[in-house]
């Protein structure tokens, strides 16, 4: 059927592409890619000859107009990002909104996603979780973002870059205390896939001892309990609790 297809692609292991994704990519009139060279490798591997066009942060606006015009003429356009699910910490949102506003059908073609893959094997509570994408790169903003996290029964899931992970762990320790339980999922679905589970203090010292930290990372924080928070937070919590009791 004509419409916009959001096609998930592998986050490492090429076997994680679905049969449906392969068919949709083959049958599409065009594939709009975050990076055409990156996607071309995937298409070559599966011998898919569909023409590609770039669709990324810097041309999202103009490209959206052009693709919507084609979609209104009955085209089948597939959107892919470099890896994983389009629209999740990746381009896609703008064209979905525009397609819906123009009465074009939008179809999700589900598949690999780093956040969900990390979460399900983390051992943390998967019943309720919050996905935050990337933390701010700037130290001050990152600390505020961490301080603003809602406490309670919720697992927090982040994407993080390997060159920033130690700074972020230091901030987490500062805000939540050394005993905050965290999980780091690195290189998911790849040859060197690794899960590190433990307190932020332990994982910090483990990682600092390494000559280098490479690869892609999903970082997760266990639900924050009173026991695992720093003195400051304990005092705030105590004040909140006593205010609640009074009211
Ligand atoms: N759209 C993608 C998805 O569905 O997961 C995410 C795109 S985002 C720009 C890229 C970030 O996702 C990386 O910096 C890393 O934090 C995380 N990521 C992607 N692939 C990963 C993998 N194989 N292992 C761990 N984290 C990964």
UniProtKB/TrEMBL annotation:
Does the record's keyword annotation contain Transferase?
Answer: yes
**EC number in record:** 2.1.1.198
Q: What class of enzyme is it?
A: transferase
Q: Which UniProt keywords are listed?
A: Methyltransferase, Transferase
Q: Does the keyword Transferase apply?
A: yes
**Name by which UniProt lists this protein:** 16S rRNA (Cytidine1402-2'-O)-methyltransferase
């Amino acid at each position: 059927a004509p419409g916009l297809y959001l096609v998930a692609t592998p986050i490492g292991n090429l076997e994680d592409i679905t049969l449906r994704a392969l068919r949709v990519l083959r049958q599409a009139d065009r594939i709009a890619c975050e990076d055409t060279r990156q996607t071309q490798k995937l298409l070559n591997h599966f011998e898919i000859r569909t023409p590609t066009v770039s669709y990324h942060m810097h041309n999202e606006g103009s490209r959206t107009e052009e693709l919507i015009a084609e979609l209104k003429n009955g085209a089948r356009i597939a959107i892919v990002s470099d890896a994983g699910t389009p629209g999740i910490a990746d381009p896609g949102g703008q064209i979905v909104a525009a397609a819906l506003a123009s009465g074009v059908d939008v179809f999700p073609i589900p598949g690999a996603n780093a956040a969900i893959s990390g979460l399900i094997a983390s051992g943390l509570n998967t019943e309720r979780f919050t996905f935050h994408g990337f933390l701010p790169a700037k130290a001050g903003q990152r600390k505020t973002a961490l301080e603003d996290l809602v406490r309670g029964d919720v697992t927090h899931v982040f994407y993080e870059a390997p060159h920033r992970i130690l700074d972020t762990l230091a901030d987490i320790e500062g805000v939540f205390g050394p005993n905050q339980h965290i999980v780091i999922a690195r290189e998911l679905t790849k040859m060197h896939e690794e899960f590190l589970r433990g307190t932020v203090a332990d994982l910090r010292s483990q990682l600092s001892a390494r000559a280098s930290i490479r690869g892609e990372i999903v970082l997760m924080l266990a639900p924050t309990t009173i026991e695992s928070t720093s003195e400051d937070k304990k005092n705030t919590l105590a004040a909140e609790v006593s205010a609640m009791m009074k009211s």
